[in-house]
From TrEMBL, chain A:
Designated name of the protein: Transketolase
A matching Pfam family: Transketolase_N
Domain Transketolase N-terminal residue range list: 29-217
Gene3D superfamilies to which the protein is assigned, alphabetical: 3.40.50.970
Cross-referenced InterPro entries: THDP-binding, Transketolase_N
PANTHER family registered for this protein in UniProt: TRANSKETOLASE, TRANSKETOLASE N-TERMINAL SECTION-RELATED
UniProtKB/TrEMBL annotation, chain B:
Pfam families, sorted: Transket_pyr (PF02779)
Residue ranges annotated for the Transketolase-like pyrimidine-binding domain, each copy included: 2-167
PANTHER family the UniProt entry points to: PYRUVATE DEHYDROGENASE E1 COMPONENT, TRANSKETOLASE-LIKE PYRIMIDINE-BINDING DOMAIN-CONTAINING PROTEIN
Domain of life of the native organism: Bacteria
Organism: Streptomyces musisoli
Record's protein name: Transketolase
Length: 235, 306
């Protein structure tokens, strides 16, 4: 498979709006148009030890996009980092395009899971962390991105309640909090995770340095969640 | 006699020792059998608590890292409750696992309908790529568990039951076995119903095929049997009646044929009691089967019936 049509050039954060525009036909995509953009960029640019040529390396970090809807920012970042050819982007959603409105891991190079139905990523991430631990691979980090409203799904709470007591310290969750849940978690998102034994940090989801610090904060013996607050969806 | 489930933990515990890919995922149920294995392999015997969505999601995650998860609980909590996880985390994610269920259709009748899963195989039939084993004896359960775990990254369901035949047969994890030969109809007996079917068809001129692997369905084996026994086919299944009727119709789609699907009824009985009482209530005891099979095959022999 050709991984990128123009491997010669590098893309930066400033290119992401244009890459997203290739999918939507809209040239004016500001970061505010997508709640996940900054989190995804900081993770892929500075935190995750992943690369197109390491897609099958068992020692790679795993990033699982659980909140699969609105994946334009994800595809843009994957294209910027060379996982997905930029010339795939205009086909977004077409019958023969690998890039659907929800990602499919079988079709998208670099996508660790397919998603769309909410509440599946965190349990799969728990299993991934357990599987790496069982094979004496303490190094790879497992990351899963969920939305605040996605936490409505009970399956997440099965995973949250298990991962803390199990001491899955290679498991990391990032919750994009755009206040989209109709019934917000009583006590707040971070408190829910903390009560289950997680390390938890809440930061400005647009502040790259704050995100980086939160993503790389030590959390010995415990899984770690970063709650990334962005503009309310319905503000 | 011990049960299929008595064999499950010892067999899988040995495989945990031998094969570093094997991992067991439990949701409390069945944990006692794995205590020793859990001590030896604390990272590969995983109990997620009473959390069945996490049970399947965890298995998928393990498989994504290259392990071979063996997942166990009662059928109703393994297939029905987390069905979307079975569909997506295993199917859509293109991962594999071995799901091993207990309690079957009515292994614990006094436990009531919440612990009965006659629809498990029919539900899996809505999905692509599943192998379904239905052993009829503890020895067969051992054989099929070995086949299931050795089957690469396939998606495999093994349906264990308390219901059992008196003796095990030689099975290969793929094909039907001919238990009796006749010329006036084929009866396919699935797993633990074989003894009742053999008793029911005593003296009848029918072929009895014994099936312990129903998906993929041994269409070639059925067709071969119909060459001498004709194309009147009776299915006797220990789960929802008619579950394999479509598979028979597909196997015989180019020849005129008749199919009778016997098995567990849809209607909720709202009765407790014993397995034998539930077998009888669903018309799966030898006397009821003899009457129903005889009527169907007999009707096929009448000139007016053709």
């Amino acid at each position: 498979m050709t991984l990128t049509a123009d491997q010669s050039r590098t893309y930066g954060y400033d290119d992401l709006p244009r890459l997203m525009g290739l999918m939507t036909g809209d040239e004016k995509h500001g970061p505010a148009a997508t709640s996940t953009l900054d989190v995804l960029w900081v993770l892929y640019d500075r935190v995750l030890r992943v690369a197109p040529e390491r897609r099958d390396d068992p020692a790679r970090d795993r990033f699982l996009l659980s909140k699969g809807h609105g994946p334009m920012a994800y595809y843009a970042v994957l294209a910027a980092k060379g996982f997905v050819p930029v010339d795939w982007l205009p086909g977004f959603g077409a019958y023969d395009s690998p890039l659907g409105h929800h990602p499919d891991r079988v079709l998208v190079p670099g996508a660790e899971i397919g998603s769309g139905s909410l509440g599946h990523g965190l349990p799969i991430a728990v299993g991934t962390a357990l599987g790496l631990r069982a094979q004496d691979r303490p190094d790879p980090a497992v990351w899963v991105l969920v939305g605040d409203a996605e936490l409505d799904e009970g399956s997440n709470h099965e995973a949250i309640a298990f991962a803390g007591p199990a001491g899955l310290d290679r498991l990391h969750a990032v919750v994009i909090d755009n206040s989209s849940a109709s019934h917000a978690l009583p006590g707040g998102i971070a408190a829910r995770f903390r009560a289950a034994g997680w390390s938890a940090v809440t930061v400005d989801g647009r502040d790259h340095e704050a995100l980086y610090a939160a993503f790389t904060a030590p959390h010995p013996g415990r899984p770690h969640v970063v709650v990334a607050r962005v503009e309310p969806k319905n503000a | 006699m011990d049960t299929m489930r008595d064999r499950f933990a010892p067999v899988v515990s040995r495989l945990l020792d031998e094969d570093p890919r094997v991992a067991v995922v439990l949701a409390e149920i069945g944990r006692d059998g794995f205590r020793e294995a859990e001590r030896r392999h604390p990272d590969r015997v995983i109990n997620v608590g009473i959390r069945e969505q996490l049970l399947i999601g965890t298995a998928a995650g393990l498989a994504l890292t290259g392990l071979r998860p063996v997942v166990h609980t009662f059928a109703s909590f393994l297939v029905e409750r987390p069905f979307e996880q079975v569909k997506l985390d295993l199917g859509h994610q293109d991962t594999g696992a071995v799901l091993v269920s207990a309690a079957a259709s009515f292994d614990w009748p006094a436990g009531g309908f919440t612990h009965m899963a006659p629809g498990d195989v029919a539900l899996l039939d809505t999905l692509d790529g599943w192998t379904v084993h239905v052993p009829g004896h503890p020895d067969e359960a051992e054989t099929l568990l070995h086949h299931a775990i050795a089957a690469g990254d396939d998606k495999v369901y093994v349906r264990l039951s308390v219901q059992s035949n008196r003796q095990g047969r030689v099975i290969d994890g793929q094909h039907f076995v001919t238990a009796r030969e006749g010329r006036s109809g084929v009866v396919v007996a699935v797993g633990p119903v074989l003894d009742a079917v053999l008793a029911a068809t005593e003296g009848m001129d029918v072929t009895v095929l014994y099936a312990t692997t129903v998906r993929p369905f041994d269409a070639a084996g059925l067709r071969r049997a119909t060459e001498t026994a004709g194309t009147d086919v009776v299915l006797v299944e220990p789960y929802l009646a008619g579950t394999s009727t479509a598979a028979v119709s597909e196997a015989l789609s180019d020849v005129p044929h008749r199919v009778l699907g016997l098995g567990v009824g849809r209607r909720e009985l709202r009765r407790y009691g014993t397995i034998e009482e539930h077998v009888a209530a669903h018309g799966l005891d030898a006397a009821s089967l003899r009457e129903r099979i005889g009527r169907f095959v007999g009707a096929g022999l009448l000139p007016a019936g053709r």
